[in-house]
Amino acid sequence: MIWHSFFFALFAALACGFALAVVLTSNVVRMAFYLVLSLSATAGLYFLAGADFVGSMQLMIYVGGTLVLLIFGVMLTAQEEFIRISTRPAEVALAAMVGLALLILLSSAAFRVPAWRGDTPAERSLALTPQTVGPIAMALLGLRVDQAPPTADSPPNDRPGYVLIFEIISVHLLVVLVGAAYLARGRIGANSLVRQDPSQPASDLDDLADADPSGSELLEASQTLDSPAETGA
Amino acid sequence: MLALPSDTLLPLLPMASLLTSPIGVAHYLVVGAVLFTAGIVCMATKRNLLGVLMGVELVLNGANINFVAIGSPYLRGDAATLGLDGQLMALFVIVLAAAEAAVALAIALNFYNTVGTIDVDRASQLRG
Amino acid sequence: MAVTLNRALDALTGWLVGSIGDDAACGYALAAILQAGMLLNLVAISGLVFIWLERKIAGRIQDRLGPTRTGGRFGWLQTIADGLKLLCKEDLMPGKADWLLFRLAPYIGLAASLSAFLALPFSGMPHPFVAQRLDVAVFFVLAVLGLEVFSVILAGYSSASKWSLFGAMREAAQVVSYEVPLGLCAVTPVMLAGSMDLVTIGDAQQGGFWNWYLLHSPFAFITFGVYFTCATASVNRAPFDLAEAESELVGGFHTEYSGLRWSLFFLAEYGSMMLVSLLAAILFLGGWHGVLPLGLGSGGWLEALLGTGIGGYLGALLGLVLLLTKGLLLVIFMMWARWSLPRLRIDQVMTTCLKYCTPIAAVCFLGATLWQASLPNGLLLRPYNAELLRAQAAGPVATPPADVLIVDTAGGRP
Asked: Where is it found, in Gene Ontology cellular component terms (chain A) (predicted)?
């Protein structure tokens, strides 16, 4: 038995099993929980592939940040009637067929490349600690130290690394931070947007502005909002 | 209905001897494919807006597994000439996914506050 | 340590079974079980001690005696008696609870708290006692520590009780916010040592307390204070224990829990207290090195006396004792703070994080960087500078980025 293969099988089974559980369950809180387990098992797969920085990043940002945010959202919106929203059986059957076909296609394509099957064991050892932090940091700063240059006499900064992408992503994150804070500010922003819509009658809008988000008044307001659209269609 | 050629599933046979043979890139790609497919199906069938968002996360993770596996010298030995490109791409995907989730969640909460439901099938005001 | 243990266990199993596989499967399995068992026992036994200690300290602070009956004059066996009582209690579950999440939530917290110990070293370079030495150890420990919040959120949600849900919401907001300044503070020692490997960070501070990163610069000193505040908040201890504020929320997220499941939450809490304290000791307080240069490491008197094998191992063991002492002192400080300070309001908690801790941590990080850049040898006596030490620290890990840069810009690549 090879422990690397054993742990790969374990983490792969966890990741795939809980990913399927996300699809199959209809309770949105359970879905979020299974997603946490699936993505944590994926982090284990990254560790096994020697990408320990990516694995830690997955745990820190994805599981510890993004999914906490997601569960936060689920808890804010999971009122009685929204915990389980079922799908029509025909849609499920169609999606299952398409998904199965896609899965068979992708996985048979993966094993078509002989060099990828892992028959020829590469040089690897479980005791070896991968060192990826330094080279990743250098690549983000614009120097590729992990790759040999294309030709022997090319200058050292021939491959400029990822400094531009790093900067763009930093600015992008700032924009997202501001934008998300603006969007999530609450009903003040939302109502001002709706008020500018001339086709809606004003009485509905006043109902909407005064509605309590968790009460039944809001449901009625949403139904009155729905009805003109349906008659129009 | 799905007429498969008989040798389509043959390459999947190495999965049988999983515990005694070393792992290759293909095994990782299969895991990525399962996550990707699960995410697609999740996005297509869930009516809860946050469920759709979870499907997106699964799809992104499936892609990330492929990036890491193809760049990994542990799995490919000397054939891995990508260096850290795969890992860096995975890092960018993770960071952008966090940003995407923040915006999507803000939209979802806004939608919930405005319409009073989280069911995407009822988001039909713009239908005309 | 893992490598030594693997070799010894491989030899043992080879002798017992006759032959070992080409991948040394038995040796790895035994080594893994042994190390996991040691870490588990460390957390469990320190949990037992800490609960007793907390009750004694609380008693003394409030001018009473604390437990005195069970187990002699000082009540040593009080925790075990409590544990027996908890074992015998009925395991209740609310009727409307989500049974799967309700039952799983305590185990998630305990698993997160325990698995963070995997990457935590207990001694320095010649014999690093660490279950899995990682190049990203600081990052890994903080990441896994952040997963503990799921336990509280799921417990609070699945209990179907409004008190629990309030506690869970507070906890989610608090922990996610406090991870930002916590990470910013932990980056300062990482920057000073030039590595995320905790073994390298600890060894870069050897040779007496004036080499500790706590005393590196005024900025690093403030950083330590901010780190400790944020660590207290992120392990959900008073004065930041909003999630279980018993005066307003009954029991907070664990209102509906009883018996053994309830105690698992507390084992996880004490485990993470221990973890952040040990991490603080390694990052800022010299880790396994003594307050004065004791010469326990490589080239010291212990190795000269007993040889590099036994002497080095003994030195590592003494370093482990030193590290655990520092961690214990920090835990006692946390308990002192808990019984001295009143609990904050939720808006005060968020204000402390977002308006004070985060900007202070950012400014201090910048200040420490500038200090290191302008005074690379420090203001005080610093016989060991970090560059020298990294050159000394032999071993497969610790390729510092700075060296890579030098090699790279020299153009000496193949």
From this structure: plasma membrane
